[in-house]
Amino acid sequence: MTFIRVAQLKSRVSLVVSLHSAFSGDTAYFSGITVWLEGVPAKPIAKADGFFVFGNLQEGSYRLHIASEHYFPETRDIEVHSSSTIEHVGLLPLPSYPFRGGATLLRVSAQDGQRRPVPDAWVEATVTQEDAVRARIAQDQQEAGSTELVLGAISGSIRVTDRYWVRSRSAKAFEEQVQIAGVTEHGRRVQLAHPLQHTYTRGAYLLPVVQTRTTARGEAVIAFSGIGLKQFTAQLRLRRADALQTDSVLKEVVLEEGKTVLSGSIII
């Protein structure tokens, strides 16, 4: 867990926006980033490691904006309370992001039936092989409605805002997607953004999920990190921004560590 020193600030700390790259977890290419609250003239204090601190805000609802040269812009509605509020944001790399050599990438283009680009389409890739699991449930039983998971057999790092498919290993198989809202005990205990829908027993596993969206030109890049396999399979889903979840288009893709796969144009 990351702790933020705020005692030396003269104003009352109301909101801390914690940014990181959803690809790597670090703060690469954050030098030109801009963070502001709609209707609030005061600028935040930029701290080290992607923290932006707002002081002396009234309690209530605000609209947060984030703009950057290398990441998709973000806009979200947040609530500021009497105590300091921390908002974690994983920024999505644009297709033009300057990835370092050796990155494992999947590039895709979304088009409509007239071969026109589809902007702002939802794109998701889930690693499907069990030997690519990030962690396993360590408790004998994790009940439906739980907002916390106790994990074991952790491979790589687990970060706030990460997404995973949880899959059971029982004869009556369940699965669902979860998002990490908090991490403690070096990743062995995580808090969830939403309660579990199903009950899972020890050994149920978490598979990495990567989400992004398309640009105005219908292009998207999905960047994988920490998979730990030379070759792996991912299930790719695309969906228009205004479409139902059941209307997504599926495609299976085989990727190799350190290489870029061009998936071509997909009609959605």
TrEMBL record:
GO function terms (MF aspect): carbohydrate binding
Protein name per the record: Carboxypeptidase regulatory-like domain-containing protein
Lineage: Bacteria, Bacillati, Bacillota, Bacilli, Bacillales
Lineage top rank: taxon: Bacteria
InterPro entries linked to this entry: Carb-bd-like_fold
